[in-house]
Amino acid sequence: MVNRNALITGGNRGIGRVCALRLAAAGARVIVAARNIEKCEAVAAEIRATGKEALAIAVDMSSKQSIQAAFSQAAKDFGPISILVNNAGITKDGLALRMKEDDWNSVLQTNLSGSFFAMQAVMQGMMKERWGRMINIVSVVGEMGNAGQANYVASKAGLIGLTKSLARELASRNITVNAVAPGFIETDMTAVLTDEQKAAMKAIIPLARFGQSEDIAAAVEFLAGDNASYITGHVLDVNGGMYM
Ligand code: NAP
């Protein structure tokens, strides 16, 4: 992936930040994209401090217009995007019986529609180059379901289906489309869970520990690299054995 441009949505913290640092270390020129531009700038600066190139860009993944504007700006400033990591994601948990329409829509819009519009924004450039890697960060619960997360689970299960469909559509152009499905990873997203919820989670993880962002970034780096050129439409579980 040396000198290829990689855009990571939600690259300013958590799993996305570690993916950005890791792809940069592997030789990619990295674009860090999220809503909080100061935090994107901080990650870009962290990458530049290692002697690599990086760009920060503001994007709201819940808005098609924002995605189109940000991606065309990134391509203008940095050149065509060859590696897309759709990592930005949100949760708005609640039981289905009481779930607000806004909470349903915003999670679907950010996690699923946003990922689709991002893939749409980069596919033409990748087709022209006849090389591309799309990596969607889904979730173990998108495979197994989870009470209290109907919106989030639907978004991630939808993203798995989208991954497989685009893998088939784009394979002839040498573009691979894969997903990484994290289990429980220690980030801001999971820091809000109660000790009781965390203990219940740990009890169903055969490796008996929570994952780190590095575990996910390693899988992303593998799928973005040359060693994964014959893998497409795959969902790579990184979950400590929580779901097999
Ligand atoms: P996190 O710490 O909460 O970070 C979320 C990232 O997404 C931030 O960079 C955030 O930046 C960005 N983001 C959120 N809404 C956005 C929007 N509308 N537009 C652009 N960027 C947006 O989450 P994480 O734990 O690192 O999770 C990263 C991905 O892994 C998510 O897709 C999540 O569903 C998935 N995942 C995580 C776990 C886990 O256990 N942590 C498990 C399974 C799957 P801004 O707020 O600045 O926009």
Labels describing this entry:
9 helices, seven-stranded parallel β-sheet, alpha/beta, binds NADP nicotinamide-adenine-dinucleotide phosphate, Rossmann fold, 244 residues
Give a short summary of the structure.
By secondary structure, the protein is of the alpha/beta class. It contains nine helices and seven strands.
What is the mean predicted local confidence, pLDDT?
Answer: 97
Q: CATH homologous superfamily?
A: NAD(P)-binding Rossmann-like Domain
Number of DSSP strand runs: 7
Oligomer: single chain
Uncertain stretches of 5 or more adjacent residues = none
**H-E order:** EHEHEHEHEHHEHHHE
The ligands bound in this entry are: NADP nicotinamide-adenine-dinucleotide phosphate
Strand count, sense and barrel status of the largest sheet are: 7 strands, parallel
Give the C-level CATH assignment.
Alpha Beta
- Count of helical segments? 9
Q: Order of strands side by side in the largest beta sheet?
A: 3-2-1-4-5-6-7
Total individual domains:
1
- At CATH level 2, the architecture is 3-Layer(aba) Sandwich
How far apart are the termini? 30 Å
Would you tell me which CATH topology applies?
Answer: Rossmann fold
| Percentage of residues in strands | 15-25%
Describe this entry's structure for a reader.
It is globular, with a radius of gyration of 17 Å. It has one domain (5-238): NAD(P)-binding Rossmann-like Domain (Rossmann fold, 3-Layer(aba) Sandwich). Helix 2 links the parallel strand 2 and strand 3 (54-58). The relative contact order is 0.14. The mean pLDDT is 97. The chain has nine helices and seven strands. It is of the alpha/beta class. 48% of the residues lie in helices and 16% in strands. A seven-stranded parallel sheet has the order 3-2-1-4-5-6-7, with helices on both faces. The structure holds NADP nicotinamide-adenine-dinucleotide phosphate. The site of NADP nicotinamide-adenine-dinucleotide phosphate has 29 residues, from helix 1 and helix 7.
